[in-house]
Amino acid sequence: MLLRIGEIRRTLRSVWQAATQETRIAGFTVGMLVCSLAAAWFLSPEHWLTIGPLWLSLAVGGVPLVAGLLVKLWQREFGSDLLAGISIVVAVVLGEYLAGAMVVLMLSGGTALESYAVRSASSVLLALSRRLPVVAHRRDGASFCDVPVAEIQLGDQLIVFPHESCPVDGTVIEGQGVMDESYLTGEPFQIHKSPGSAVISGAINGELALVIRADKRPADSRYAQIMQVMRAAEQDRPRLRRLGDQLGAWYTPLALLVAGVAWSISGDPIRFLSVLVVATPCPLLIAIPVAIIGSISLAAKRAIIVRNPSSLELADTCRTIIFDKTGTLTYGVPNLVEIVPAEGFSSDWLLAVVASLGRYSKHPLSAALVRASEERQGAWFPVGEVSEKPGAGM
Questions:
Q1: If you ran DSSP here, which 8-state letter would residue 31 be given?
Q2: Are 96 and 270 in contact, with CB atoms under 8 Å apart?
Q3: Is the dihedral of CA 26, 29, 33, 39 positive or negative?
Q4: Which of 26, 29, 120, 207 could form a disulfide with 57 if both were Cys (CB 3.0 to 4.6 A apart)?
């Protein structure tokens, strides 16, 4: 029992450390709201145990959020979340702590969801970065030593062990084998490597060790380029989110004007707060990140990886999609799916004939026929003479 409690604590601690500031604020605010509502149910709305958690949520969550909005305001960035920050300040001034805490939750929750959407979009690239080694094996005469990847210099001779990721871009100088570059190029084939062949960082070596010469520093290799793409994807905000910020430039002053008119007519400052809370653009703060997360998750279920969330906004305008190679859509291994023989011939006999001939060919379609015949345990016929002219078949 104590062991399970310790594991739960470690898990919660790791999750808390990995969370963003907005995620922590949102989680803390939810907890404080639950405590406040529970205290109000058993005690009274005016009891200090009811108001105390709301004060904590405003102090812990509201102050950093409002400070960040003030910085944006100083930089003349009038986003859609500025009105939410004003609502928090007015709620504290008027003593409406529950309303202020709800706005804190809405503001931090929307930002946390947006961060989660970006992390989900770049999860594949993050997984790729974790596959790369942090230590390389530099050859020194007849022996080798382990050095950090960052210390690799141009011209260094490195040994890539079997099933190990290539640390830098380079050229094979000794050994023959294959490498899996599918995570980098999308090509599903095992790429044969021999002396003189180029290798790229992040490719996974096959069953044989290779000796390569470093042609690029780690900072200039394919891995560094992928990291640059990942950082650019994280910083690229969806156009809908930017559109919401542009709307905030004129929507916020208009909402403040309406709130001021409501206050002046009624003479009650609570009316000013009510208009601000109602006018806070909840759909822009929460609905857009939720829509992005839903789109990325739906695409992932269909084996589509969305690297950049902004590309989702262009999908409805696309009329033609061009793929550079078949390996992007297939595994590069053809399979026999149907046999349509002419009248008077059986499917089993026809497959046996073509498979018997196909055993003498290296064509990938012949391999598919031979594999299909073996799976069906078909007959094999002797072949007398074989001729395969280029472009004409066997």
A1: H
A2: yes
A3: positive
A4: 29
Helical ranges in 204-321 per DSSP H: 222-235, 239-266, 269-279, 282, 288-301
Position with higher pLDDT, 354 vs 63? 354
Residue 123, burial from CB neighbour count under 10 angstroms (0-12, 13-18, 19+): middle
164 within 8 A of 133, measured Cβ to Cβ? yes
Rg (CA), the chain: 31
Instruction: Place 15 in a pLDDT band, splitting at 50, 70 and 90.
Output: very low
Q: What is the largest CA-CA distance in the chain?
A: 105
Position 371, amino acid: R
- pLDDT number for residue 213: 92
Inter-residue contact 39 to 55 (CB < 8 Å): no
156: its two tokens: 């260094």
Crossing angle for the helix pair 82-94 and 269-279, nearest 10 degrees? Answer: 150
* pLDDT tens digits, one per residue of 260-317: 888 888 888 888 888 877 777 655 556 666 677 667 767 766 666 676 677 777 778 8
Q: Which residues contact 275 (CB under 8 A, 6 or more apart)?
A: 255, 258, 259, 262
Residue 202 binned pLDDT confidence (cut-offs 50, 70, 90): confident
81 is catalytic: no
| Contacts of 15 by beta carbon, 8 Å cutoff, 6+ apart | none
What angle is formed at CA 334 by the lines to CA 358 and CA 377, rounded to 5 degrees? Answer: 55
| SS3 state at 158 | strand
Q: State mean pLDDT over 367-382.
A: 88
- Three-state secondary structure string covering 290-349: HHHHHHHHHHHHCCCCCCCHHHHHHHHHCCCCCCCCHHHCCCCCCCCCCCCCCCCCCHHH
Neighbour count for residue 110 (Cβ, 10 Å): 27
Q: Which of 146, 180, 324, 348 is catalytic?
A: 324
Contact criterion met (CB below 8 Å) for 307 and 229 = yes
